[in-house]
Amino acid sequence: MIVVTDKQAHCWAHDPRNAEQRRRRASKGGRGKASREIKDLKKQLQDLVQDVLEGRVDRSDAVVVNQILNTRARLIELERRIREQEELEARIQALEEQGTDHRGGGFAGWG
């Protein structure tokens, strides 16, 4: 649990002074995983092609495996888009907090 003292206006996660560091951390999050997953998918596809061409895997089985690999690829893309959306939301929130009048007014940066 993060506690904000009377001397602090924000916890670390919402302090505008930490916005750049939060942005950098968020942009790094998950990149390695997606890259590995894509690399693994490409390798599986290459192996599948080779196995079909050499007769080790039946073509109808290969079609089903390819459909599964395509589903995995779509899920990776969906995860990437969700992560990107969350990063944008965090950046917008940080910008809004920087423009908020902390004496009771609303957002001073738009309008």
How do you describe this structure in short?
The protein is mainly α. The protein has helices at 19-28, 31-53, 59-99.
Give your account of this protein's structure:
- The protein is 67% helix and 0% strand.
- With 111 residues, the protein is an all-alpha fold.
- It has a domain at 27-95.
- The longest helix has 41 residues, at 59-99.
Observed structural traits:
111 residues; mainly alpha; 3 helices
- The N- and C-terminal alpha carbons lie at a distance of 36 Å
Enumerate how many helices there are, as a single number.
3
Shape: rod-shaped
Helix content: 55-70%
Low-confidence stretches: none
| Strand-residue proportion | under 5%
Oligomer: single chain
Order of helices and strands: HHH
Largest sheet: none
Kindly report the average pLDDT value. 83
Secondary structure elements and pairings:
Layout: H1 19-28, H2 31-53, H3 59-99
Helix pairs in contact: 1-3, 2-3
